Amino acid sequence: MSRKSTRIIFYSILTVLFLYGLLNAQNAIRVKRVVDGDTLLLTNGERVRLIGIDAPESKPNSRGEKQIEREGKDLKTIISMGKRATKFVEGLVKPGEQVRIEFDVEKRDRYGRLLGYVYLSDGRMLNEEIVREGYASLLTQPPNVKYQKKFIKAYGEARENKKGLWK
Fold it and tell me: What is the pLDDT along the chain (167 residues), one digit of tens a residue?
């Protein structure tokens, strides 16, 4: 192989690596804090609502009232479960940690929050981890259903194995 060919290959590889890093960095951002079991506040001021999951509410609100009906539990129990879910997520995501967000069909919900699948620095998907460990139910809202089957499987395993809130 000629020196010129080697140089072309070398610079081609560097260009590919640069572009790969640039693409991955575009959706990378730092977490300011965990809001609750299914919402994060980012350092840019945006809130990201985790797609496909629904953690119990950790404060009294209208959503908590809906969960009372669905879960058949009182508000005090729902809020207690919500606080446990929030603590679990805080154990996975620390303030200042960089995460990557993957979007689905819709980028925002009706409240203006980002909708996303959040990936931790070790590559695990936060949404899936929360469900797998039993700290959230499923919340499928088409058209954002990219990982619906994965979440259904994780949810079934958590319930069957009595993990997290399902103990």
Answer: 777 767 777 666 756 555 444 444 457 899 999 999 999 999 999 999 999 999 998 887 667 667 766 777 778 888 899 999 999 999 999 999 999 999 999 999 999 999 999 999 999 999 999 999 999 999 999 999 999 999 999 999 999 999 999 98
Q: In the annotation, is 49 catalytic? A: yes
Is 159 an annotated catalytic residue? no
The torsion defined by the Cα of 38, 93, 108 and 81, in degrees rounded to 10, comes to: 10
Q: Which of 106, 113, 157, 159 is catalytic?
A: 113
- Which DSSP state fits 164? G
**Among this protein's residues, is 128 annotated catalytic?**
no
Given 49, 100, 128, 129, the catalytic residue:
49
Residue ranges of domains in the chain, CATH in brackets? 28-166 (2.40.50.90)
Strand 47-50 relative to strand 114-119: parallel, antiparallel, unpaired?
Answer: parallel
